[in-house]
Each structure stands twice: as structure tokens, then as C-alpha cells.
Amino acid sequence: MATIEQLGYSAFFIALTCIIAIVARKLNERMSKDGLVKDLFFEAIAAAELCGCCFELIVVADNFGVATYAVFLFALTIWWGRSWGSATACPYTYMEQIVEGEVSMKEAALKIWAQLMGGCAIFRYVQLYWWLELAETHEGRAFEDCKADLQVNLYLGAFIEGFATLCCRLASKVISEKDAKFGAMIDSFIGTSLVVAAFNYSGGYFNPVLATALKWGCAGNSALEHIIVYWIGSCVGAVLSVPLFKTATFREMFLTEKPKAD
User: Fold this and answer.
1) pTM (2 decimals)?
2) Which terminal residue of the chain has fewer beta carbons within 10 Å of its beta carbon, N or C?
3) 2-13, pLDDT tens digit by residue?
């Protein structure tokens, strides 16, 4: 049975990963000139931090339940929002910017490539920690075969990832435009709630880089199935949020101030 001490080893690893990322960002800030290369490093660092922490969150969910996993994810989402700066560690934010005409295809492709490199490379660091087997929850983790999280029909899984991503992006845009008090906490709560809701169906990744770093090649999904669910599903949902957010109906429902009754 998993104990609080073993949970502490997971918490320590997550905290260590965040601290290493802080140091890496400061080094990049000092050593790199302002420009695209600097931004690429920031994206790689953010993706590495995200995926490194989420590898350990799988251990937390498996041994301490989804509720404990949700608490960690909620806190981490707030932390990442405050520490990443302009980095997103998520491909579809740049796809949205392409639709908006804010970034070129080349720049977006390079940043997505940097995210993938950072997210996938971090596993060796995670594997080393698991190999030490400091906690019982890590025994056999370092070299075990992984299993895909998709528990539903392929297209239903893609719909779940896409619809939840659409909801997340719309919520973030509304919170950003309203400049809501406690906006980061509200945004994190919405995102975490959607992840928990989808957890037992598609895994609730809502981020293609995260899904690829954690689950690419795992038993249960082919490469094509993975791309359809976690890349096409999420990205279509995110891109649809751009025109939907601008519609009069949506803005009237969520952004227009309603007159107060006398």
C-alpha cells in the first residue's frame, strides 16, 4: 500500500524538476541573445518541465488516486502559468496564432519542434530517477512497457480531446479578456476539472506534445490512432476556438456585461 513517504518522493521529484527548469531558464536568459533561438530554448525547457512532472503525476495517479493527481496538477498549472513567460509547451497555441496571422508557419514549426525535443528528451532524466527505486511506487517503472490511455472508440477519443481543448481555450480567452481576479486559479481549476473528467476515457492530455512524450508507441494505439486522437483532435478543437470566440453569440453570452436589475 502506498504511503505518504512514497508520495513525498514523487513531490520531491516534481519540485526538483521545477527547480532545474528555473535554473535552465535563467541560464538561457543570460547566455542567449534575444530572438528566435532564445525562444526555442524557452519552449524546450517548458516542455521538458511539463512532461517531466507529468511522468511522475502518472505514478501519483496510479498509486494515490485521481483526486491527489488533480491537486498536484492544479498547483502545477498555476506555477507554470507564472514561470514560463511567453513559452507555452503546447503546439496548438501557435496554430491559433497562424490562424490569427500573428506568427509565420516557419516560426510555429520550429517552436513545435523545440517543444517535441524538450518533451521527449526528458524521459531519460525521469527514467534515471525511477531506476534508483527510492520508493516502492517506482519499482519496475524505469523499463516497463507502457500502455495507451485511450479506453473508448478512436473517434470518440478524438472528440473528447478536441471538445475539452476547445472548452479550455475558450475559457482561457474569456478569463484573459476579462482580466478576472484570480484568473490563473480559475483557469487552472477549469483545466484540471476537464482533465479529471476525461481521465478514464482518453487520458485527458489536451496537449499533443505531452501526449506524444508520455504515450507515443505505447501498447494499445497505433501511430495513426495516436495522431488522430491527440494531435488532430486537440488541434482542431483549439483552432475552432479562434472563430468561435469572435462570434457575436459567444461574446454576448460570456463577455457582455449584463445590466443589473433595479
Assistant:
1) 0.94
2) C
3) 789 999 999 999
